Amino acid sequence: MRDDFIEKCLFESSRPAWRKSSLVLFVGSPLVFNEWILRVAVAESEDLEVRRHDDLTSADPVRLASEAVLRLVVVEESHTDELAQLMADARSPAGSVQWVLAYRDLVPAREVLEQRLHGGPLQEVRLLPMNVPIGVWASMFRLMLWGDFFVPSELLAPGPATAAAGEPAPALTDTVLTRRETEVLDLVAKGGQNKVIAHRLGLSEHTVKLHIHRIITKVGVRNRTAAARWYLSRVAEQGR
Q1: In the CATH hierarchy, which fold is given to the domain comprising 179-239?
Q2: pLDDT winner (highest mean) among 11-15, 25-29, 194-198
């Protein structure tokens, strides 16, 4: 099983391997981005290739971006200064590449939120907490692959952090969903489309659409993606 995994998740190996259409780089310690994390990441899409590097220099994201294969760069918080310098020097890849800071410490995460609001080299960086259950982490990682910006609830507070999220965060304790609405929203947060959700729950697609409409109304957000963000925030909060 380990050999199969290594064939899918290419690290700093020089052995030849088949090229996949999208590449995700994890930059940081193998203690943070361990085999289990990489296994979960590569399972999110059939067209993903995953690599881990110790630092941004060895990862060489600029070159990879020029080859039009780089999709996501997830950087451990200990490399925040290195990432900021790369972005400030305007040497960061352009186009569709998404930059993500993986964190446990709230200080660098809040700095990213501050720069998203007021400007700075890290203003385009997204946030991915590493201190959440693996299932929640996988759902958050999936949102990153979609190009979404997710703000964990622990960073949401009145003022700048809330404004940086793009819309006010609904109060987690004030919104009551029915059991069925919660089941639907859980599947939405896991990337399920209406047809798949309907099949899983034994409902019609029309009924699923009605549930999603009610969820969006109750939560007070604009769309299903924002509702998924809200749900993941609540799950992460309850998991701590």
Answers
A1: Arc Repressor Mutant, subunit A (1.10.10)
A2: 25-29
For the chain, the straight-line distance linking the first and the last C-alpha, in angstroms and rounded, comes to: 32
Tokens at 181, concatenated: 């609405």
DSSP 130-193: SSS-HHHHHHHHHHHHTT-----GGG--TTHHHHHTTSPPPPTTT----HHHHHHHHHHHTT--
Predicted TM-score (pTM) of the model is 0.59
2-164 CATH: 3.40.50.2300
- In tens, the pLDDT along 58-93 reads 888 877 776 657 888 999 999 888 888 887 775 555
Extents of the domains making up the chain? 2-164, 179-239
CB 9 within 8 A of CB 18: no
Question: Alpha-carbon distance 168 to 146, whole Å?
Answer: 21
